[in-house]
Design goal:
alpha/beta; ten-stranded mixed sheet; 10 helices; globular; binds nicotinamide-adenine-dinucleotide; binds 3-isopropylmalic acid; binds manganese (II) ion; metal-binding; IsoPropMal-DH-like_dom; oxidoreductase; EC 1.1.1.41; Isocitrate_DH_NAD
Length: about 325
Amino acid sequence: NGKYTVTFIEGDGIGPEVSKSVKQIFAAADAPIDWEPVDVTPIASDGPTAIPDEAIQSVRRNLVALKGPLATPVGEGHVSLNLTLRRTFNLFANVRPCRSLQGYKTPYDNVDTVLIRENTEGEYSGIEHIVVDGVVQCIKLITREASERVLRFAFQYAQSIRKPRVRVVHKATIMKMSDGLFLTTAQNVAKEFPDIEFDSELLDNACLKMVTDPTPYNDIVMVMPNLYGDILSDMCAGLIGGLGLTPSGNIGDECSIFEAVHGSAPDIAGKNLANPTALLLSSVMMLQHMGLNSHAERIHRAILQTIAEGKTLTGDLRGNAKTDEYTNAIIEKL
Ligand code: NAD
Ligand code: IPM
Ligand code: MN
């Protein structure tokens, strides 16, 4: 039927509300997507992190998924399902663009950054143990293989921009061996791309400079180990108006899962207050990834126009529209 089937994980908290918005907008835009909804709630009898096989098979079959947020317990409890998904499908690069939205005023103008986060290891390897009572060790695993893979991805990604530049963000001054390996691997991969300007910066300094003036970071592809990318991407979201606005793509060699940077927002869940823009922009990234550029463009333009007009905005953007009112405003623009 000329349609593509995409796996849809609606997620927890505000997940179903922002997912509904995407489904309505895709239907109104005649986007050629058939959603295949799957439940990723772990099957208790199969162990705490066992994602139902049906969900795994769906992603493997469709190769592309859109995902709402999944809540992760603090301290005790199951390993994050988000991490399990990233690892199961070897989604080694997490692409997190962050662009100012015209018409929505923040202390910063014209932010246009992209951050690429290693997505499979580092502090997220899940290797922690008690040495003796009161002393815990957490292993930050850095491998040349995973570093090289995400770094090469970052350079290839940079090739698509007009004046390609790549910057590796690190703390190799302190983590001399682990971040040191990431940095030297970057320096080696850079030699494969002589036309791309390459440099490096310490993470703390990058934070300071970005909150002072982010514009010098425009058009630089920043690539970094997992945890740094987690933290820096929330900070970047803060520059343009918050987590309601920033999308991401978890990219692997075979499958990809697109999701917002934000979580399940339990404080506003079920109240029709969530901003669906982050998931919508993730779905635009997904359409671009699938080569459906005209559909991506059409939906993207309607979102940007609605925000630029400034009449129908959700509470996080100082507006008083509900999720569904904002969704309808976008649909009117299509
Ligand atoms: P969060 O991103 O859920 O919320 C942080 C703040 O941002 C809250 O005040 C929330 O109301 C606001 N916010 C987030 N998204 C919004 C949106 N779309 N519209 C309007 N406001 C929005 O972070 P948290 O509270 O630290 O985490 C809650 C849960 O989500 C945790 O269990 C966490 O592990 C999980 N989480 C999941 C993902 C994911 O699935 N990829 C990402 C981050 C956090
Ligand atoms: C994100 C989230 C996840 C992370 C959590 C929910 C596991 O914060 O996607 O940024 O830490 O990577
Ligand atoms: Mn995060």
